């Protein structure tokens, strides 16, 4: 994945991504970044199905209001565990790697 630097003209600060700008705790920024990527992947998959939210929610095993929160990007409503649990019914799998920090 290509990394983009976020730069503040007001303060002169720069961050590796938006999550580092929003969250000062590096572990929480990483958690937000991972949740964002999972939510985006699930959202794209749901859109590919071309189903109503009700039908897509049923396929995922969640309620339509819960799916609506996901589609609206309400990241604070979803834990990593909850998003990972949605991958299989979405027909997705995750590739996992860990590397040394830069």
How would you portray this structure in words?
The protein is built from five helices and two strands, in the order E-E-H-H-H-H-H. Strands 1-2 form a two-stranded antiparallel ribbon. The mean pLDDT is 85. It has helices at 18-22, 26-49, 53-60, 64-71, 80-87; strands at 6-7, 14-15. Helix content is 52%, strand content 4%. It has a single domain, classed as lambda repressor-like DNA-binding domains (434 Repressor (Amino-terminal Domain), Orthogonal Bundle).
What would you say about this model in short?
The protein has 102 residues and is mostly helical.
Indicate the topology.
Layout: E1 6-7, E2 14-15, H1 18-22, H2 26-49, H3 53-60, H4 64-71, H5 80-87
Antiparallel strand pairs: 1-2
Helix pairs in contact: 2-5, 3-4
């Amino acid at each position: 994945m290509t990394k983009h630097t976020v730069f503040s003209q007001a303060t002169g600060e720069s961050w590796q991504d938006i999550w580092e700008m929003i969250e000062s705790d590096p572990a929480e920024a990483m958690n937000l970044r991972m949740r964002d990527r999972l939510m985006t992947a699930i959202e794209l998959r749901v859109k590919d199905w071309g189903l109503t939210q009700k039908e897509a929610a049923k396929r995922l095993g969640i309620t339509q209001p819960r799916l609506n929160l996901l589609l609206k990007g309400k990241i604070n409503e979803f834990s990593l565990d909850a998003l990972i649990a949605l991958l299989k019914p979405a027909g997705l799998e995750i590739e996992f790697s860990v590397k040394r920090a830069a």
